[in-house]
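Dear all,

This email documents one entry for the complex benchmark we are building for the journal club exercise. For each entry we list the sequence lines for every component of the assembly. Then comes the predicted three-dimensional structure of the complex as a token string, followed by one or two observations. Please use this as the template for your own entries, and keep the labels exactly as they appear.
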Amino acid sequence: MKTNDIILQACTKIVLFIIILFSVHMFFAGHYEPGGGFIGGLMTSGALVLLMLAFDMRTIKKILPIDYKILTAIGLLFAVGTAAGALFFNVPFLTHAFGHVDLPILGDTSLHTATLFDLGVYFVVIGVTMTIIQTIGEDGE
Amino acid sequence: MLEIVVNIALLVIAIAMVCLIYRVIKGPTMPDRVIALDAIGINLVAIIALVSIMLKTSAFLDIILLVAILAFIGTVTFSKYLEKGVIVEHDRRNR
């Protein structure tokens, strides 16, 4: 039976960007407001799941050629690297640094290395969730 | 005054959710249950908004959008399972 779900696909094309923007907002708001890497990663993988529902697996692999197991490894590398970077400055493991940096366009910006650790959490959550869903969801044909 | 109004609205939405839970349990077919669950999600959004008015906080405003997105994705997933039997297809064109 040939079904035509153009409404779902058109809705997905619009809603996807709202969800991804919301997840990025949740990720960066995590320092001062509720949010953070975990919920941001979950929302991003929710957006990718919506994309998988509206289209098929081959299309997703074509437009997003990401191996999610490698993404998990990169996320763990970020977390361990941020934690181990403290050792070079003669401070204990997992000590974070904070400071004001003059960026070219943004001006005086306060940056914290906990964001990089959070970025690792974000990548690991996306990688693990998408690996689970791809492995279970694919009907092996 | 505002607290009374918020309390009344919470009570009414809670009654509506009880009726929807009745429909989830009793519903003769599966689409009835899916639609009732979707409406429960939307009512949950309303309850979170009213509670955040009652507690005078803006910390829950992200949760509103979150629950709405999750209800949408969940309903789409259930609908696709009911219609096609699979949730994630491998190749749509060659089927």
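Observations: Chain A touches chain B at residues 3, 8, 15, 19, 22, 26, 29, 33-35, 39, 43, 46, 49-50, 52-59, 133-134, 137-139, 141 (CB under 8 Å). The beta strands of chain A are 98-103, 107-112.
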